[in-house]
């Protein structure tokens, strides 16, 4: 009914079908080059909906809208089925969405009581709506968000429960080891130097290379090292798809000699070491020419071990909290805050660069922090009453409790500080990095991860100490984002970023890359569209966080905690309209 043959997620206005990626929802094509980190499936249930029918209960439907980043326009993403005669629907049809940690995806769930077969929503009774972000759902305990339905003044509209489930798009990897026996001798003076090449078959019958083993020199009975490959790379998740394995004799000049080949499949390999996984290596040319040809040797599978790759969302769902700390540069080089030329200028009509960067990054990260309390620090200022210089002061004036409520609370404390402290110097980063590192060092069990956002106008005074702090912090559950505002040269920041050369201090290298630097000026939109430019800024500074987070967990061998048991709705006898 209602033209609902399409699955949820395909009814996007102006779309030619297919699930719209979050990155290019609306008019934001600048972001569409991202490959979605993962897909999540949203399930919707309601409790105690308004009853709009006189003789029976409402017949509810849920309609999901996403918001374009540029013009803030809401677009329909999809609809659930209609469920007859209930105020407590558990909708069967799901919404499948691309999920990016680094993007803020605003969602709106509208509920209607369906009164006819018309697909036009204005012909049905509005039951209320709920606004949230995708991050808010994912970041809730057990990835389950419960919120009141609003939108009809003076009426209690009930609650909605939205649960996000990451789609297991074959996240398994396999660890395999092979050996070979009695391979053909191809070298004139010695034995062969064999290696294996694995190919997965494509839909059109062609093959794509997916793995090469190392070369084992001068042997006809090689034992190759075990190697790990994702199931997606090996067979694209199709367990019966043909896998072709070629055996070559390595030659220095690159003209490797073909010894032979065999085919198998993931399903066959998954039987592990057995008589089924001893393969005859066949050279078709030899087979065609020689009547007595048997084979060119055999290849045997020695071991086959499945490992499930864990994702960032597995940890979030298991309860890991992201703790967000802000550190703001209050050095004199920013200029007098009362002057329009200052980077700290308090323009009553528009956020300054510090405020814009803080809001862009903070609004996304706050969805992953359950208490929404953020420590906010300043550095490089003289503090009242005695004018002492501090490189680690609480923006809210309370060193015992530097926490501010939400990003708005941080903004408020920042503006208050500008009125009370004197901008001074020098620009020292190490104290605020060490401040967060002390907290991170106290919880290394994977239950918490710390992100420090430093916003600065540039030239750093304590480079050696900062490098040492970063090298030490690279062993801890933390990441550092640096946003450079203003026109300064940021060469030193690029060095701290460590993307090109891993950062080191006193001969010790950072265990992992934990710093991401971006210059704010690269995101100033000449057309004045700050919303769009700030979405790009947040995307670029946050895109590396999930991988940095996972690298810490992998190195420490920390597995995600099990997610809380899934929500089981009370059982209702439901009749579904077809």
Automatic annotation (TrEMBL):
Keywords: Calcium, Metal-binding, Phosphoprotein, Repeat
Keyword Calcium: yes
SMART domains assigned to the protein according to its UniProt record, in alphabetical order: C2, VWA
One of the record's GO molecular function terms: metal ion binding
Domain VWFA: 323-524
CDD domains: C2A_Copine (cd04048), C2B_Copine (cd04047), vWA_copine_like (cd01459)
C2 domain boundaries: 16-147, 156-279
Record-level GO BP terms: cellular response to calcium ion
Keyword Cell membrane carried by entry: no
Pfam family, one: Copine
UniProt record similarity statement: Belongs to the copine family.
Function recorded in the entry: Probable calcium-dependent phospholipid-binding protein that may play a role in calcium-mediated intracellular processes.
Protein name as catalogued: Copine-8
This protein's encoding gene: Cpne8
